[in-house]
Amino acid sequence: MASRKITVLPGDGIGPSIVEATQRVLDRLNCGLEYEYADVGLTALEQGRELIPQEALDAIERNGIVLKGPITTPVGEGFTSVNVTLRKEFQLFANVRPVITIPGTRARYENIDIITVRENTEGMYSGIGQTLSEDGNTAEARSVITRDESLRLVRFAFDMARRLGRQQVTVVHKANILKTTSGLFLNCAREVAEDYPDIEMNEMIVDACCMKLVMNPEQFDVIVTTNLFGDIISDLCAGLVGGLGMAPGANIGEDKALFEAVHGSAPDIAGKNIANPTAMMLAAALMLDHMQLHEPASRMRTAIRNAIFAGDRVTPDLGGHGTTTGFTDAVIERI
């Protein structure tokens, strides 16, 4: 198998340990991957460098594929989110968050299989135009939605649904109140849906969507929505299958892609060898699929699923007494 170099951002907190665990599984799969490492976030700051050093940006530009561990953005003015910055820098316009029930996780539902596709670069979540009045009494922010970005994002979601054999796309919005911004997104979605007569399109207001996700999540297949709504809904969906420890994420652009565990860096358990690497491993499986390495991606998911179902070495968040390395061993043994 021809080798392919990817950029690895180990992150901080539990990031390095779950990234190392994931690389052990990737190496066992013999995917032909080579790794170029770069530091960002707190790790870079502690070395006296910028939050996102230029060498990290150069490595991403060179390799095009990124495997990223959790990264802490320091609290305080002057520090922008590393995640948001990377998404904007490389125009990673689509955030893909799949959740699927794995037996053994003690999740509330048994047959969840939902993909949330979230716009990644604009809208209220992008944080543009934030101002605070001099007296501290009035805060403002801007929400900008563009036609081009909405069309691109929704078309991406429908293309993905068709490629994966999905039957339905639910467009989530708040156009009844946010008539211009959310209204534009909804109108773009309707326009795109006309080109996909084989896929059912549903329209759903965001608050109703959240209620229905809690009450009857089995009705959902693919969800597509704007940035802020997608941020909230995708975490809600993670809660349906056992929490963020089970939730991978992919950030897709035209020629770059970044794959990550979407949970935080959990500094309180860093170095204790008890972090659950499942989300990071599932993110790597998404990465393999993106690289057209479908067979090892499938083997990786099956091994993870079987290791969790066995239950003897799962980490404390899944109700076990296992360690990061022990669970990783269990996955590798099943490949």
TrEMBL record:
Keywords on record: Oxidoreductase
Top-level division of the source organism's lineage: Bacteria
PROSITE patterns listed in its UniProt record: IDH_IMDH
Domain Isopropylmalate dehydrogenase-like: 5-331
Coiled coil: none
Keyword Oxidoreductase: yes
Entry keyword Acetylation: no
InterPro entries membership: IsoCit/isopropylmalate_DH_CS (IPR019818), IsoPropMal-DH-like_dom (IPR024084)
E.C. designation(s): 1.1.1.41
GO biological process: isocitrate metabolic process; tricarboxylic acid cycle
One example GO MF annotation: isocitrate dehydrogenase (NAD+) activity
Family according to the record: Belongs to the isocitrate and isopropylmalate dehydrogenases family.
Designated name of the protein: Isocitrate dehydrogenase (NAD(+))
Species per Swiss-Prot/TrEMBL record: Alkalilimnicola ehrlichii (strain ATCC BAA-1101 / DSM 17681 / MLHE-1)
